[in-house]
Amino acid sequence: MASFSYFDFQMKSKVNHFRRFPTELLFWCLAIVAILMIDPHSQTHFSICPLDILGIDWCPGCGLGRSMKLFATGEFLASFEMHPLGGIAWLIIAFRISELVKLLKTTSNYG
Amino acid sequence: MANVLKHLPELEGMELGYIQGILKNMDDEQANLFAQVYRARRKDSQMVLILALLGFFGFAGLHRFILGQIGLGILYFFTVGLCFIGTIVDLVNYKSLAYEYNIKVAHETLSVMSNGMGQTFSQEKEQNDKNDEA
Fold it and tell me: Is residue A38 a contact partner of residue A65, using CB atoms and an 8 Å limit?
């Protein structure tokens, strides 16, 4: 019995260690902050897209960030023209963040 | 008290600790049933990793689909994994994605077991009675 409780203690400290880094939650929150800081009307823009760095001009995801920014500022038509998924992406990401927060609450209360 | 290493030896890390917390309150028979159902339903983190890697060949977001996140799956698929950035992030935390899905499955299994347990036992008893008569 004593060895089991020691095992439990070890597991718990390991689990807690992992729980401190909600990587995905952090990623989505940083992504939203970055998107809200985009200026969608400038001609040349700074891009962290790996394809752009490799020198390929177009990919299916191009303009999604600018589209989301335009959607947030209320220019829905321009947003749809930039990338049709802009508005839907807001919905999906908001849902995902709420799921991740719920998960954080349930897992940190167990065991 | 059932030991997780005896029933589900393939688990590791966070999942191992979590399932041990669940199995703590079970006897060996219950734990056996739980292990059978859970093993059939859980997703291996290696599968998530491989499907996420497919994102570099143009089929992004397949791991999100099999983890039941259809919305994000569609978003990833039509934007090549948010221009590869989403794919790279998922390669980093593929383990927590699988873990998240697996604890959901564990809770599902637990609730199904607590609903169906009485029935299963009564059926078994009937079977035993019939065997006794024969």
Answer: yes
